[in-house]
Design a protein that fits this description.
Length: about 525
């Protein structure tokens, strides 16, 4: 073969690999409203930055006539490129080749790129669109999955791992995304479940559709498995890139500060009146978040799940910060099983990757009731407590209104190593609200009063007394649990200065194998 012919062969082989399972299957993929693996990679990465690995890999199976069906690349496209100029490793499952199913060699390709990502300290993006284990390869395929899981586990907390689910993801295959930091699902075209509708029907008799069992809406609203439900793949791709903007390359680096044109000393007069006079009246804590952060930009995680707590990434003076805020607009901002788990996971994500945490507190306590107790709110609430107490990143807290009981301690209190704890004048930091306290402390006296009007008058007086004494920020401030009571409109500047002050914070937990967080 002449040199010219050698080069032509290379070009032809590349061309063949790029076609995956062939034109027909690509057309089918498009007809379903899905991009191909290579199109996805091109869109996720900076233009022209993709370098592919292992394009010439083929499977080694000889069963079920598979040896006659060979596709260059074997159903997964792997390599590296850049997002906003920073290196990332990426794999995209190619549904056009054996339904994107995972073979021994396919798993090896993914493991290779994960190993290299760990060596250089760069994020891994995984795009899932697969029929699961390649049935013809049997146990080799199961072993391949386990190899990937093991790498997901060791990479956790070292490099950011982001999973996009843009098609099927079923059986044990779901555990790789589940082990990663962020899961993004495309609406209507993706699903995730351990057991599909057919087996569900056989085993339990339950009749349920794929969408209702494991669609993006289910995981974004009911299970909390998906951090984001994207309207389509384009939005999902945008979310991958956006998420990476707030994270460093690895746990030894800080997130990147970008230029900020939004004035850091901007006063937000609207905040002085944002808390309603009536303590039982809700308001939207997101209005506060949008007001104080750079350019009103907030990348909210889990927007549709456990809405009584709000979490996500923002920037202050161009520096990424994770926000955790109780949401009075939903269930009065109470802490329950789901919101505790949601926030705990987010706090740990921030702490793993050196993203400082801002906590906005307006919490009436934990949700009472047998459903919560039987469901293990003790352990789930402890997760959030644990996550905050363990976190060593800079922690700034502002108590906006209520901060009652155990929930007060949990929400980044001073004693959980909150670095700077501010309160607005509207803060009520106490064991419980005035009406609950009066009911308990004055119950006997109240019942002795027979006249209803007299009774009401007595209750009102006692509540006012309690409020005066406890339902304010000054008792906590007297003890130094609150560092300063600030005017709401100054919040943006105070937060920025607080994080700037804490920039070089050094705090190291005692050496240990690992903690034993109440899972
Ligand atoms: C080999 C597979 C495959 C698989 C699909 N294909 N899944 N080949 N192993 N697991 C092939 C099909 O034969 C077909 O080949 C092509 O991919 C496209 O599949 P279709 O069925 O035509 O596509 P569609 O109608 O869109 O249905 C997609 C699907 C379905 C719902 C994913 O293919 C399906 O149910 N696949 C099997 C899923 C499954 O049971 N997987 C094993 C789960 S157990 P041609 O040549 O016709 O294009 C598992 C365990 C993991 O994954 C354990 C980890 C620890």
């Amino acid at each position: 073969m002449s040199r010219q012919e050698e080069i032509k062969k290379l070009i032809d082989m590349r061309e063949e690999a790029r076609l995956g399972g062939g034109e027909k299957r690509i057309e089918k993929q498009h007809a379903q409203g899905k991009y191909t693996a290579r199109e996805r990679i091109e869109m996720i990465l900076d233009e022209g930055s993709f370098e592919e690995f292992d394009m010439f890999v083929k499977h080694r199976s000889h069963d079920f006539g598979l040896e006659k069906q060979q596709y260059l690349g074997d159903g997964v496209v792997t390599g590296h490129g850049t997002v906003d100029g920073r290196i990332v490793y990426i794999f995209a499952q190619d549904f056009t080749v054996f339904g994107g199913s995972l073979s021994e060699t396919y798993a090896k390709k993914i493991c290779k790129l994960m190993d290299q990502a760990m060596l250089v300290g760069a994020p891994v993006i995984g795009v899932n669109d697969s029929g699961g284990a390649r049935i013809q390869e049997g146990v080799m395929s199961l072993a391949g999955y386990a190899e990937i899981f093991q790498r997901n586990i060791l990479a956790s907390g070292v490099i950011p791992q982001i999973s996009a689910i843009f098609g099927p993801c079923a059986g044990g295959a779901v555990y790789s995304p589940a082990l990663t930091d962020v899961v993004i699902m495309s609406d209507k075209t993706s699903y995730m479940f351990v057991t599909g509708p057919k087996v569900t029907k056989t085993v339990t008799g339950e009749n349920i559709t794929t969408e209702d069992l494991g669609g993006a809406t289910v995981h974004a609203t009911k299970s909390g498995i998906a951090h984001f439900r994207a309207d389509d793949e384009d939005e999902g791709i945008m979310l991958i890139r956006k998420t990476l903007e707030y994270l460093p390359q690895n746990n030894l680096e800080d997130p990147v500060q970008t230029e900020c044109k939004d004035p850091i000393d901007r006063l937000d007069d609207v905040l002085n009146d944002i808390i309603p006079e009536n303590p039982n009246q809700p308001y939207d804590v997101k209005d506060i978040i949008y007001t104080i952060v750079d350019d009103g930009e907030f990348l909210e995680f889990h927007r549709h799940y456990a809405k009584n707590i709000v979490v996500g990434f923002v920037k202050f003076d161009g520096r990424p910060v994770g926000v955790v805020a109780n949401q009075p607009n939903f269930l009065a901002g109470v802490l329950d099983i789901e919101s505790s788990r949601k926030a705990a996971r987010f706090v740990r994500l921030c702490d793993s990757f050196n993203v400082p945490i801002l906590t906005l507190v307006d919490v009436p306590g934990f949700l009472p009731g047998s459903a919560q107790e039987y469901g293990g709110i003790i352990a789930h609430g402890a997760k959030l407590l644990f996550a905050y107490g363990e976190a060593t990143v800079p922690k700034v807290t502002i108590t906006l209104r209520k901060s009652y009981g155990g929930a007060h301690d949990v929400m980044s209190s001073k004693q959980l190593r909150g670095d700077i704890n501010y309160a607005w004048p509207s803060a009520e930091i106490a064991v419980m609200g005035a009406s609950g306290a009066v009911e308990i402390l004055e119950g006997k006296n109240i019942r002795k009063i027979e006249n209803e009007d007299e009774q009401l008058k007595y209750i009102t007086e006692k509540e006012a007394e309690y409020k005066n004494k406890f339902a304010n920020p000054y008792v906590a401030a007297q003890h130094g649990f609150i560092d300063d009571v600030i005017e709401p409109r100054n919040s943006r500047f105070r937060i920025i200065r607080a994080f700037k002050t804490l920039e070089n914070k050094k705090l190291i937990n005692p050496p240990k194998k690992h903690s034993n967080i109440p899972l």
